[in-house]
Amino acid sequence: MKERWTYVPDLFGVLFAAGLVNVQLTVLAFPLAIAVALVTAAIRIVGIPFLAPIVVGYVEIVRTTPLLLHLFFVFYVLPLFGLVLDAWPAAVLTFALHFGAYLSEVFRAAHTSISTGVLEAATVLGLRGATRVRRITIPVAIRVAFPPTANTLIEAFRSTPVVALVAVPDILFAALSYIRANPGTSIVPLGIVALFFCVTCIPTTMLLRRLERRWRVG
Description:
Helix content is 78%, strand content 0%. It has helices at 8-46, 51-63, 67-77, 87-112, 116-124, 129-159, 171-181, 187-215.
């Protein structure tokens, strides 16, 4: 019985090493998602003709369709139009566009949440134009947007295992590969995957909540 479990420590090392792929995907894709969101939110706020309706359509379509469908579209459908991406860039692009749509709505809502009274008070204090944006609009909008942005970050990281379905060698891909090679061992690899996300998401969530309380808008 003891020999039966001797593989577990080595499997821990292999799967947690593969989990770094999930971390790397989040670290690469989430800043791109923020960039996409800032641009698209600005287009909607300013109301640029022709572009604003396109952005609205993009946001609504992405938010009402599954992430996995987006991944398959980028990986399998775009090559039909001449754009062939390997699994890794396809995953990064999919996550950037998918979560960029969610963050776009977050940033737009954060901007519109700034009350007229605050803006009028800034005007009374002599803050106008770029100065008002820099000292009032942006700081307030960041504080309002921080909690949903933090939640989206955690959701993005928890969603990364879907990339195993296009053969990105992440932690789930490694676990499934082990299970296929060693039938009857599924509970241990999948349990390690669950543990990996627990030990990464729980401390990160606690840190983000602490920052949220510190930056909370009063």
